[in-house]
């Protein structure tokens, strides 16, 4: 079986900043979860890398992307943690993955009903890993460009979203016309998190590790292999 791993991708996007060497003042960790192949990697790449990732491989372990934003004059780093949707890769990194989470993005594929049916399982998994109920969550139906193949009625998605009090977005990581929409999903979360407790990130390049430190000094050291 493949070993769990964490890959790091940096993306220098976002508004031009007065001094791009200034370290971010706050770091927000957002996890993107859902079944395999719903488009988690493509969504996070669209936000952090600014384009559709044409060739993807199944995520093994955890992928990690970042984008630094200037929000109301404050430098904020958004970290998107994208984990494998496949059952066999869910162990190992999973504890790191759910620790110190600031927001959760649940993704399903609008063209595959089973990915929608499985959402309560992902909601449950978050609860099992003690992600606080106060952590902002959103529900995203991806691949809306494939209109002819849609299997999940919008009304059903809205009912589920309402029953869990989640904002619902239906979008496409592939369709360039939806870029603004993907931006708005993560920017909305970023603005919302601006008033929340931050994480501090210390990067130790020589040791190839990042150390994530919460406000209560809970230290999490993650290998970047
Ligand atoms: N048509 C269309 N295809 C998409 C879209 N987003 C992703 N895909 C395709 O869906 C497949 C899976 O995309 P990924 O982003 O790798 O999915 P994932 O959820 O990260 O998958 P795992 O890493 O296995 O958990 C790829 O073939 C993508 O090209 C979209 O918005 N529209």
UniProtKB/TrEMBL annotation:
Pfam families: Ras (PF00071). GO terms for cellular component: endomembrane system. It is found in: Endomembrane system. Keywords: GTP-binding, Lipoprotein, Membrane, Nucleotide-binding, Prenylation. Belongs to the small GTPase superfamily. Rab family. It comes from the Eukaryota. Its main location: membrane. The lineage of its organism: Eukaryota, Metazoa, Chordata, Craniata, Vertebrata. This is Ras-related protein Rab-33B. One of its GO terms (biological process) is Rab protein signal transduction. InterPro entries: P-loop_NTPase, Rab33A/B, Small_GTP-bd, Small_GTPase. It is a lipid-anchor. GO terms for molecular function: GTP binding; GTPase activity. The keyword Protein biosynthesis does not apply. Gene3D superfamilies: P-loop containing nucleotide triphosphate hydrolases. SMART domains: RAB, RAN, RAS, RHO. The keyword Lipoprotein applies.
């Amino acid at each position: 079986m493949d070993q769990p791993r964490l890959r790091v991708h940096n993306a220098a996007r976002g508004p031009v900043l007065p001094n791009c060497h200034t370290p971010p003042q706050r770091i927000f960790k957002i996890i993107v979860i859902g079944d395999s192949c719903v488009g988690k990697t493509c969504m996070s790449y669209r936000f952090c890398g600014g384009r559709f990732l044409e060739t993807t491989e199944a995520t093994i372990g955890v992928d990690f992307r970042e984008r630094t934003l200037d929000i109301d004059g404050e430098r904020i780093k958004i970290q998107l943690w994208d984990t494998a949707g496949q059952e066999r890769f869910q162990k190992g990194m999973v504890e790191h993955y759910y620790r110190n989470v600031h927001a959760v993005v649940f993704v399903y594929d609008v063209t595959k009903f089973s990915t929608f049916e499985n959402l309560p399982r992902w909601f449950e998994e978050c609860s099992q890993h003690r992600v606080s109920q106060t952590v902002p969550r959103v529900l995203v139906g991806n691949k809306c460009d494939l209109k002819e193949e849609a299997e999940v009625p919008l009304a059903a998605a809205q009912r589920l979203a309402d029953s869990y009090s989640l904002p619902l977005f239906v979008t496409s990581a592939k369709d360039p016309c939806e870029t603004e929409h993907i931006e708005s999903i993560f920017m909305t979360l970023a603005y919302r998190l601006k008033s929340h407790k931050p994480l501090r990130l210390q990067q130790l390049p020589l040791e190839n590790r990042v150390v994530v430190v919460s406000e209560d000094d809970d230290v999490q050291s993650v290998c970047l292999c």
